[in-house]
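Deliverable D4.2, example record:
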Amino acid sequence: MLHRPASRYVKAMTNIMTTGDGFEQAARILREGGLLGVPTETVYGLAADACNATAVAKIYAAKGRPDFNPLIVHVDSLKMAEELAVFDPLSRRLAEEFWPGPLTLVLPLRGDAALAPSVTAGLGTVALRQPIGVLAELASSLGTGIAAPSANSSGRISPTTAQHVADDLEDRVDLVLDGGTCAVGVESTIVKCTNGKINILRTGGITADQLTEIAPLAEPEKSGKIEAPGQLLAHYAPDVPLRMNAHEVDEGEGQLAFGPAPLHSAGPSLNLSPTGDVAEAARNLFAMMKTLDSAGVAGIAVQPVPENGIGAAINDRLRRAAHGSQSSSNQSGEDHG
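Output generated by the structure prediction step:
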C-alpha cells in the first residue's frame, strides 16, 4: 500500500490532487489524450492511454526518452492482459502469483492488440504489469491498458513522491495524483519466460528468490538488444558523480550510508537504513539520492549495500546511476522506465 500524502499543491506550474479528489479528472485527462503523474507501489509513472498514438508520443516528448526504448503497459487484470499478449503457462502462473504487484512480464504481442506501435518500440513483444492501486483503477475506468514509464526526465533519478514529479516535469504533465511515498521505492522486476525458465531482464521489487520458488532462472542473455525498459547502461543519474562501495568519504562529498556504522563525513549524510534493512533502503533510495544531489555536494559516496533480496535491485540502480552520472558530465545520459 502507498503511504498517505503529507503535502499538496507545492508547485504552481503543476496541478497536484490527492488520488481520491483527482480520480475523475485524471480519468478524463486519459480519455482526452493527456498525461498524468500517477503513484504506484514502485515509483510514480507518467501515464497515457496506451492505444492513443498521440498521447504515447507525448510521453516520449515530455521525458526526452529515446524512441527505441519500449514502455510498460499497465492493466487492471490478467483478463485485460490476455487481450494484449499471448501467455505461456509459466507467464500465466507468475501473473497469478505476483499480480497485482511489482512484476512485469514480456510477452508476444497479440496480432489484434490495439496498442499504439510506439508503445512496443517496434518489437513483437509487449511488457505488461498489473500494479497495486490507482493506476489499475484508472485502467479499469479507461477500459484498456495504460502506458506509464517513470515520471521523470530521461535518464534522471526516478520519482517516489508527487513533489518529485512536479519538480521535474512541471507543466509537461496535465495532473499529478498524490498518493504519498511509494511503498517499494524501486521499479518492477521485468522477466521473460523461455523453455520453462525465467529470464530476469531487470531486477526490481520481486526478488530472484521469490521467482525461483515458481521456476528455475535462465542464464542471463547477453545479446545487447533492448527488450524492455531499464536495460540501458546509464540510468537513474544524479547531476553529481556517484560512486559505490565507498569506505571513506572524500572532501566535498555527501554520504549515502547503509547500516549502523556510517562513515565519518564532514558533509551531508543520509542513511538508507540504520538497521541494515534492504527493503527500507529501497524505499529511501531515490528520495535520498535526490536530496544529496541538490545539497551542493561535489559527489555522492555510497556505502556498500548487500546484494541479498531487493538489495540486488538497489545495486543495479546504483551501478547505472554511477555510469549515468559520469555520462551526464559528457552529456550522454540515457533513459529508463
